[in-house]
Design goal:
By secondary structure, the chain is mostly helical. 64% of the residues lie in helices and 6% in strands. It has 8 helices and 2 strands, in the order αααααββααα. A two-stranded antiparallel ribbon has the order 1-2. A hairpin with a 7-residue loop joins strand 1 and strand 2. Helix 4 crosses helix 5. The longest helix has 21 residues.
Length: 172
């Protein structure tokens, strides 16, 4: 018996003992413990489906987030958009350039501070917002098929808690 097999046998025994004695199982005791991998895989699948649904409206992956952020707060700097969406500034600058060429966004100097350039939705960009919402609804419908309303609420609650755990600690 190899070292890996011995380790697995010991882990199974420890898990069985904990279950018998009513002790709380740790994450590593659970068979579904590879949550990170499953979460990444599910997110990748959701993103792929969303990208397919968005492609029909002429949008690429990631552009929907930029447009939704601007729908909420039009006239943001590229740096503020990058921070809001959790991407690096050069990536955001390339994305804005592409979207500007597509006619969805425009850059304008800040009227109060000439050193700043702000990004705004164009009429064409605003016209795509409903398509973004529809693509999101379609993706969600496919992803959640077979889930009860209670399961969806529980999943949403767990994902919010997981996201909160992953946020950097805020200073006291």
């Amino acid at each position: 018996m190899g070292k890996k097999d011995k380790l697995e046998k010991l882990e199974r025994k420890a898990k069985a003992r904990k279950e018998r004695e009513g002790e709380e199982l740790t994450v590593s005791d659970r068979p579904e413990a590879d949550v990170a991998m499953l979460l990444v895989q599910a997110a990748r699948g959701m993103r792929t489906l969303s990208s397919r649904n968005l492609a029909e409206s002429g949008l690429y992956a990631g552009q929907d987030g930029v447009m939704l952020a601007l729908q909420e707060t039009d006239g943001m700097t590229a740096g503020a958009l990058a921070a809001r969406l959790g991407v690096k500034a050069p990536t955001m600058t390339r994305t804005i350039g592409r979207m500007e060429a597509q006619g969805f966004l425009e850059r304008r100097p800040d009227p109060d501070d000439a050193r700043l350039t702000k990004v705004y939705l164009t009429d064409a960009g605003r016209g795509r917002l409903e398509a973004i919402s529809e693509a999101g609804r379609m993706s969600e419908t496919v992803a959640l098929q077979g889930f009860s309303d209670k399961q969806v609420r529980t999943l949403a609650k767990l994902l919010r808690a997981l996201d909160e755990n992953l946020q950097p600690a805020k200073p006291a």
